[in-house]
Every structure is written in C-alpha cells, then in structure tokens.
C-alpha cells in the first residue's frame, strides 16, 4: 500500500478512472507541499544553526521562535518589483530560475522515501532505471544556472556561470564513477541495480562501510554541486557580486535561493540512500521514512557546519581538486569495488 492506493480507495465511490485521476492530483499536491515545507524548514534551520554557532539568537520576532519569519520573507519576495536588465536575452532569462526549481522538484519525485506507518510507502515514482533518471533530473539545474548567467548581459553573471560549468564538469565525473561502483556491487544481489529502491534494499551492510572512499568522494561532490561555501564558485559574493543570479530580483531570485537549500537537503538524502542504508532499520516497514529523515538531517547539519566554518577555495585549486585528486580516487574506488564484488561473496 502507498499514498496513491489509499487516495484511490478514498475516492473509489466516484468510479475507477475518476478515483485514480483525483488520487494522482492530490498526490502531486501533497508532494509539492512537502517540497516547499522542506525548503522553508531548511532555511529556518540554517538561520538558527548559524546564529547558535555565532552566539546569536537568530529569527525570534515573527511567530513563536521566529517560525513565521520565512513566511514573511516569502511574501516580501513575492511583493517585490521585478527589475529586468535592459540588454537581457528575454526567454532564457525568464526560463532559467524555473529550470533550476524544476530539476530540484523532479529529483525529489524520483527518490524512494520508505514506509510511514498506516500510510505505507511514500515513494512516488517507481522505475527500473531511477538512478539514471535521478542524475538526469539534477543535471537540469546547472543548465538553468548557465542560462541565467549568459542571458543576463552582465560580466559578473557570465563569469559566475563559467565558474559553475567548470565546477560541475570537475566534480560530476568522480561522483558518477562512485555511483557506478555502487551499481557494480549491487548487481550481484539484485537484477535491477539501477533502481534506487533495489540499491537500498540490498544494503544488509550499508555501502558506506565497504565503500568508504566512494562515500567520501560522493559527499564532497554533492557539497560542490550545492554551491555553498567553500565551493560557492558560481556566486562568489566577495568577487562576483552574486554570480549568475546578480541580475535577478523578487521571486526569480527566490527560486535560485531555494534551489541552493533544496540541493543541500537533496544531496544529504541521496547520500543517506546510497551509502547509509536509507530507510532500512528496525521496524522499517512502519518507520522507514523516519530513519531516512534522521540520517538526512545529520548530514544537513554536517553540511551547514562546513558552510559556516571553511573559507572559499580559489577557483584553480578548486578545479584541480576535482581533476587531480577526486577523479583518481574515484577510479581506485571503482577498481576496489570490482575486486570486492568478484572476490568476496559476502559483499
């Protein structure tokens, strides 16, 4: 049983086809609400956590514990005047923030979330190649950032976009090689190793234990993809004003801002699923989603600590880190995974 089945049963008196149409509609609405709540929660948590580390209070005026501060900020962004650059390339300029947010939402839709008590499975999309679809979805986001920089007719935005391209190329290859090692190890246990649910279900021992090198490479690559300090090359505020989003205002800027925090949560959840057992645990048939959420939030706090404690890396050293260090390490990890898969039957 899953959310869709429960909704279809609820609407079953209206007929088979109408019940499933309404079930799909309400499931989509619930999913979008979930994504928006996650984004608001992430921004609030970051502000509170940053304030705690800096011996401040953080948001505490609007609502209890400042919980309504993010609602107020969202309303402010929506109400702000949209200022459009005079020499912009209009269509890509307007499409870019939508692409970033669309890629984020599609990626969330492809993740397996495990079970949650009476509701059952919270997973939305079931596919035999969900790993490929997931990385195809998150590949949409850099395209939006590149379009934003190039179409803004601003030298700082263009420079930020070019830095973003260099960042993505440098770190995506090691990240994909690390995932290939996982697929190789899972192929001996399941007939569908490209299915995220199969990757999670085959983790009798979390892959992060035998694949600790791959875990390290993948986590660093996901930090780089999320573009926060020390890897915020695409929007280096002290050098490029705000990088690819310099010429954006109002809610269009808000989409980029939410995309960054959404990427942190998405990356943490992907690491949890691929390397830390995801929703596996005692009584996972009821509380699987809780296990996944706990692991994800621990990684989110680690990510925030990295953000708040490390200075920005120089662009040449940043790119060299991907090509000269992470790429060879990921290839070595792939070779080790091959030996483990072929030589050690217990793995």
Short recap of the structure:
By secondary structure, the protein is mainly alpha-helical. The chain has helices at residues 3-10, 16-53, 69-79, 90-110, 130-138, 140-151, 155-186, 196-201, 212-226, 237-240, 250-275, 284-309, 315-343, and strands spanning 115-116, 120-121. The chain folds into two domains: 1-79, no CATH class; 92-343, no CATH class.
Describe this structure in words.
The chain has helices spanning 3-10, 16-53, 69-79, 90-110, 130-138, 140-151, 155-186, 196-201, 212-226, 237-240, 250-275, 284-309, 315-343; strands at residues 115-116, 120-121. It is mainly α and 347 residues long. The chain has 2 domains: 1-79, no CATH class; 92-343, no CATH class. It has a two-stranded antiparallel ribbon. A hairpin with a 3-residue loop joins strand 1 (115-116) and strand 2. Helix 4 runs antiparallel to helix 6 and helix 6 (140-151) runs antiparallel to helix 7. The longest helix has 38 residues, at 16-53. The two termini are 31 Å apart. The mean pLDDT is 82.
Task: Spell out the blueprint of helices and strands.
Layout: H1 3-10, H2 16-53, H3 69-79, H4 90-110, E1 115-116, E2 120-121, H5 130-138, H6 140-151, H7 155-186, H8 196-201, H9 212-226, H10 237-240, H11 250-275, H12 284-309, H13 315-343
Helix pairs in contact: 1-2, 2-11, 2-12, 3-11, 4-5, 4-6, 4-11, 6-7, 7-9, 7-13, 9-11, 9-13, 11-12
